[in-house]
Design goal:
The chain has about 190 residues and is mainly alpha-helical. It is about 60% helix and about 5% strand. The longest helix is centred in the middle third of the chain and has 30 residues. This is Inorganic phosphate transporter.
Length: about 190
């Protein structure tokens, strides 16, 4: 059976669909449809946020209290100083809810950005593109794939989730560590403080 999630979540599908909808927007006179596009964009974004909170409700109903222990790598602040690795001790339910909240915050930032581009500079195409690709992005998140689609939590859906970036340009040192050595090292550092 082909892996549809991998296909729809690939960078090639995202780039291809973005370019397709951009060209579609150029072929249609979008100025004549500004009000319906605003309504479409707003209703899609409200639907995505509502589905996110429905997902949180579903996660709370499952109430998976499996302990999840991992080390979050050191982060670098704006002035170049680096914080220490942080030991995270949580449950699967709390982790999934935190990940959905991150997605909601990203959606809110996207809404602000698109709204600014539309009202300040008069761009209409982003309303069309994000109305369509917004659902695709939501439906391909790891939490939705686990809790709505019932995909097993193996491979890239294993918690804690690996950081992803276009073209895989995330440093391996920035990935969460789940090995026993890293966890013991972080526990010793925590006890020493």
């Amino acid at each position: 059976m082909p892996n549809y999630f991998k296909f729809f979540n690939s960078i090639y599908f995202s780039m291809g669909s973005f370019l397709f909808f951009q060209q579609l927007g150029k072929r249609i006179d979008l100025d004549a449809y500004v009000t319906p596009l605003r309504f479409l964009y707003l209703s899609v974004q409200v639907s995505i946020i509502a589905l996110s909170y429905l997902l949180i409700y579903k996660i709370k109903q499952k109430n998976d209290q499996t302990v999840l222990k991992y080390v979050e790598p050191a982060s670098q602040s704006w002035d170049g100083t680096e914080s220490a690795d942080q030991l995270i001790n949580t449950t699967v339910m709390e982790y999934d809810i935190a990940e959905v909240h991150k997605t909601v915050k990203q959606s809110a930032m996207g809404i602000l950005m698109i709204t600014f581009l539309h009202f300040k500079f008069g761009y209409i195409q982003p309303l069309l593109v994000q109305s369509i690709l917004g659902f695709k992005a939501f439906l391909m998140t790891k939490e939705v794939r686990i809790h709505y689609w019932g995909v097993p939590t193996t491979g890239d859906l294993r918690r804690p989730f690996r950081l992803e970036a276009p073209f895989g340009m995330v440093n391996e040192k920035k990935q969460p560590k789940t090995d026993k050595g890293s966890i013991k090292k972080a526990e010793k550092a925590l006890k020493a403080e």
